[in-house]
Please model this.
Amino acid sequence: MTPFQSLVCTALPDDAEHAALAGRAWRPEANGPSVVAIRQGMAFDISGQFPTMRDLCEADDPAVALRHAYGEPVGAIDALLANTPPDTRNPGRPWLLAPIDLHAIKAAGVTFAVSMLERVIEERARGDLTAAAAIRQEVTSLVGDDLSKLKPGSPEAMRLKDVLIAQGAWSQYLEVGIGPDAEIFTKAQPMAAVGTGMEAGLNPGSSWNNPEPEVVLAVSSTGRIVAATLGNDVNLRDVEGRSALLLGKAKDNNASCAVGPLLRFFDDGFGLDDVRSTVVTLRVEGPDGFVLDGSSSIARISRDPADLVAQMVNAHHRYPDGAVLFLGTMFAPVQDREAPGQGFTHRFGDIVTIAAPGLGRLVNRMLPTDRCEGWTFGTGALMRNLAARGLLGQGGER
Model:
């Protein structure tokens, strides 16, 4: 087993034996994916009752439905994880996929004060990495570095907005950071996310980029939050810094959305309050020996997760197959890597580990987007595969 495989196999939450965990596995004999329940270190195919993860999320009580679902064993979860990295995979054996399928993949931006300031810096630097350090000092002197107690949309926030406008320091990022409306954008298309153990993509045209470690919520079509997992909202800082209108190019690239390892469904032992107190840790280990450690505490988020979900799903925004929502990150890497004053940017081959005790570990290796596995199995392919297996119209408790 390679060191990367060993790291990938540390995926499960610390209390996995008590958690309601489900994922998706590719089954070579079916030439397609199955929803799997994780119990006692084993994966069981429950696609006869829940053909898609979307169906499980739509159940009246997904955690209860998951615990009562039955199915044939697919294999030990450790074996699936060890077989997931593409460069060492045995294609004749099952492997793990991202734990979401038909869900819309959405993300909330600028939800932490620290990341908000970094977005202002990106904007003012116009994507120029070398200018960022001086601008960071200037912006911090104007707005400070701790806005965590400032409630977005409040009278206090609006007074701060007036002051910043008067000083010529207002920014579109400050608007969504402390204004009444959250930034909710499309991170990737349904079925496009990569899971733990897979290669995550960096567009080789970028020279300033970083990981964004986040909690990801799974939300039903009615807006009910049913589960949580981890995500890496890979970001091209130079591209977004040139223009916020390039957000799609900065965010939505091949393999640039990593989600996993598994969905943890809410039950009496784990729920939204646990998410609110979660600390997400990050480690980047480079092929050059560089190591970067960081963390992001959801407790310091400017907008409550439930409020963000309410801005995503409501009478004006419908998602009949549900959605997942990246909650944003307070982590903004400024540690120098290449040269003093140039901050952090990825190198190809970096291994990124995003972890939280209750959600497990999401591990990916960064490669150019055109060298990652190509995305060819989309919604149409899934529907044809499920039809061929006789699974369409099966189960799916409502």
